[in-house]
Predict the 3D structure of the following.
Amino acid sequence: MTPVTVARAQTPAATRLPTLPALPRGLPPAPTDLRIDPRELGAKGDGTTKDTQAFQQALDRCAVLGGGEVVVSPGTYLIGAIRIGSRTTLRIEEGATLQGSPDKADYPVVQVRWEGRWVPGYIGLVWAQEARDVRITGRGRIVASMEILRRIEEGTGLRHPCLLEFVDVQGLSVTDVYTEQNGMWSIHPVYCEDVVFRGVTVKGGADGIDVDSCARVVIDHCDFDTVDDCISLKSGRGMEGNVIARPTEDVTITDCSFRDQHWACIGIGSETSAGIRRVLVERCQCLAARTFAIYLKSRPGRGAFIEDITMRDIEVSGAGYGFLRLNFLDSGKQDQFPVAGMDGIPTVRNFLFERIKVTEAPILVEAVNIHPDKPLDGFVLRDISGSAGHGITLANMRNVVIENITVNVFSGPKVAADNVTGRGLEGAARLIPPERPAPVVASDTPYHLGMTTGRPN
């Protein structure tokens, strides 16, 4: 067992603080000269008549004519998948509900991203692709059909539809709406830039918002009540994600509340093969989590990086396992075409967690599943208060700063570590390190972009 090492001569400058994210570029003013009510085109809003065609005609007119608003008046509108074009606003007024059709034939089968790979699947209920300046707003509701069960269709393996899905959208704003999803992901932006979710209520039977290879994203004043991760940051899996190389970067999450029934309030990974960087989470409340409130995860075979992560001014209560877990050894499914060798071990660096208040967390921090061949470089944990069953466990880290931890720990040492250097480790108990993972080898079949990798798993 490698002894705990304390770098007593290390100065504060040796630990570089994370770079903060860039903010989205503002959208241009929304066109308002053209306003269309789908009822003018035949929509009934009675909850039984399918109004898909009327909605699509209204949205298409706005896009073709250079932009405008589709204004949805009170009523329940039964729809299949509808596509929003450029410079178009979908305004759902209070008392209006877009109700997803239970018929999967109403959702076109296209290439969708699912757990880090492009596979066949049903497109989302409300979607946009290769569009600019798209807005969804209003005090109305978007509700999925609860008759579409599970995430994958039995027999075909097709991925089921998300509630809102955006692919390659430049300039996206979703504000104030209430969303309710079934057992599939709720909101899924992919390859999008300059994105704002503000004041959105996200209730769902799976993930809430999955940010997938996107840049400059703000999630602000949103309320989450989900079964799976409230927010998940992803960027592809295995060689496919690594070759496409579109990271998720510059993500700001502020003033949100989280309730999760199965996994974490905020998850980073495990699909990280194009990298995740410059993430800021602040002034948030983690009110319930089945496992850890904050969970950063990946595994050898992903490659790329997770870096420049800042989380501060967070209140944590109701966490089933604890406040924070880092697992970069065995999280998620291994891809059929992994990134092999040292290149496949994720680079992890520059993490800061400060001004955190925890209430009766079973574990404060569990951060031992880090590869010894690529230690985490730069980990700051400071100004943490509250109560926890167990303390902080660390392994395979450099440039660590632990300071001002005023947490009542009911069992075991406050800090235990192995192969860790930094400040604030004096008196840390020795920790038995995790087993070294087996090396990841390349697939027998050489990978090239676009090859079939099998149906969703």
Summary: Residues 1-13, 453-457 have pLDDT under 50 and may be disordered. The CA atoms of residues 303 and 344 lie 4 Å apart.
